[in-house]
Amino acid sequence: MPLLKVADLHKRYGRHISVDGISFEIESGRCVALLGPNGAGKTTTLRMLAGLLPPTSGEISFAGNRPGADYRKALGYLPQSPAFYNWMSGQEYVVFAAKLSGMRSREAAERSAAALKRVGLSESARRRISGYSGGMKQRLGLAQALVHRPRLLLLDEPVSALDPIGRREVMELLREIREETTVIFSTHVLHDAEEICDDIILMNRGVIAEQGTLSYLRSQYSLPIIRLYTEKEDKAFRWLEGLVHKPFIVQSQITAGKAIFNVSDVELARREILQEAGKLDIPLLQFEAGSSTLEDLFMKVVGS
Ligand SMILES: Nc1ncnc2c1ncn2[C@@H]1O[C@H](COP(=O)(O)OP(=O)(O)OP(=O)(O)O)[C@@H](O)[C@H]1O
Ligand SMILES: [Mg+2]
Description:
By secondary structure, the protein is of the alpha/beta class. It has helices at residues 42-49, 90-100, 105-118, 134-146, 164-177, 190-196, 214-220, 234-243, 266-279, 294-303, and strands at residues 4-13, 16-26, 31-35, 57-62, 75-78, 152-156, 182-187, 199-204, 207-213, 224-230, 249-255, 258-263, 284-291. Helix 2 crosses helix 3 (105-118) and helix 4 (134-146) runs parallel beside helix 5 (164-177). The radius of gyration is 24 Å and the shape is elongated. Adenosine-5'-triphosphate binds next to strand 2 and helix 1.
């Protein structure tokens, strides 16, 4: 039985459709990336899953319960831009969150200390949040989301606003946390998703463009491909445009001076393209024959 089952979820604001019928299931213990560009509908989706935003239609069921049953106690949620009470200390804030989830004072204090330790904030726990760095605030947000030991953790862009060091710290922490609980985190960076998750749900414009395990998507999109870069000259642009009519080219994406061709036969394509470029004296900068990657898939979906 999946931990979370989402069926045909929609969110509409007036005439604007933010989420346009998404369905997916999440198995317990998985780490799932909700990947997509700005405006894809990630935050809207996570807020609906967190019970903060009523869906326009569709169903969410948690742990086999009937759709619509309240499962908020089993959730931890870190919003995209968490707002803290800056006058509180980190410890006061996590204790406050623990009490909101229904814990008594003593349990709240114990669990908060454990959560703060978990995220490496024990030593700063008594300092005011106003003096925390961005990375520390994000780790505090994680402590708040974890303190009641949720079965499902929803994290909205947990690393996007951080500098490389803060990002690394939080990614390392997520790598540990994902061993203990089921995690869905959103990101617009494919690399983040590839680094720690098992499954990817790729969203664009309110719909799911692709979903599956990382290895399935990698194999599915590992197609023979040729990448070409030329000088930015009209002659080269015209030549690239003309190549799309070659019989061995299955699909193409061309922007000024850069072309990516899915090909049916890499060897044939390599020979013909290089010969022709030589004959016509095309100012080639780079030629690459290989396999397409998830990055190519992501760019195609995002660019469409
Ligand atoms: N309260 C709202 N009223 C009207 N439109 C909204 C509202 N909230 C979100 N939207 C629209 O819904 C779409 C999806 O927004 P959402 O915030 O879910 O995207 P996102 O994938 O989280 O983007 P980002 O990467 O920028 O955080 C956007 O076009 C946005 O403008
Ligand atoms: Mg968002």
